[in-house]
């Protein structure tokens, strides 16, 4: 377990099972499941953000399992304990196929339970993209600080990524991410900076693919039909809240909710007031699993 693991957060109160899921191109992805200590009322498939991994969601997992939800997650290719060049993906659609395989595993295990897709940051972009394309599979989608506009990283990095995406797609780039922007809790910043599985790397192709995905998701927001919960800290300096505001206005879901979190930084699940957020999140899920 890493220093950012559930054990380090003293949050291991549920059954945890680790396994692999075969993603796009046959890549074996590290995956895990947390089961509550009572009959589950629903399933949450959690899609983590860029440069991190699934073990960084201990507080959120604890809150969800305590409320009776099974949580499934995996490490993206090139992230955490999954194989591949750090921060590289050849096609953004590979992320979508990986999510599809994770959902298929969760459905095989629990065919009768309502299933929600949760994504944070780039994972939020992935989740919204997936929900637009596959609404029939989901009871709802939750997007936490999704990347829906140009990220606050060096414009030079993005320009280089565009130029090199086809010529040298695996060319490594450093995003220059500032760890102090993830949360207002100094302990969480320290966890992030000392976690050996965290990185600030991307490839030229991955960066270009992400920006293309942002444009596609914004252009197709009106096609979203899945119940939507979107929340975003209004002091987020990594993924600007403006993108979420635009997407929410255009989202086609008849059932849609947007929480702007005053003073909130990028990782609301690791930020101050997280317990209040979790209570609101669980209430939203419960209302859709009656």
**Order of neighbouring strands in the sheet with most strands:** 1-2-4-3-5-6-9-10
Radius of gyration: 17 Å
Please name the CATH architecture: 3-Layer(aba) Sandwich
Sheet of most strands? 8 strands, mixed
Low-confidence segments: 1-12
N-C termini distance? 36 Å
> What's the helix-strand series?
EEEHEHEHEHEHEHEHEH
CATH level-3 fold name: Rossmann fold
Shape: globular
CATH-defined superfamily: Alpha/Beta hydrolase fold, catalytic domain
Q: How many separate domains make up the residues? A: 1
CATH class: Alpha Beta
Helical percent range? 25-40%
List the helices and strands and how they pair.
Layout: E1 15-22, E2 28-35, E3 42-47, H1 58-66, E4 69-74, H2 92-109, E5 115-120, H3 122-133, E6 140-144, H4 155-164, E7 172-174, H5 186-194, E8 201-203, H6 204-219, E9 228-233, H7 241-250, E10 256-261, H8 274-287
Parallel strand pairs: 3-4, 3-5, 5-6, 6-9, 9-10
Antiparallel strand pairs: 1-2, 2-4, 7-8
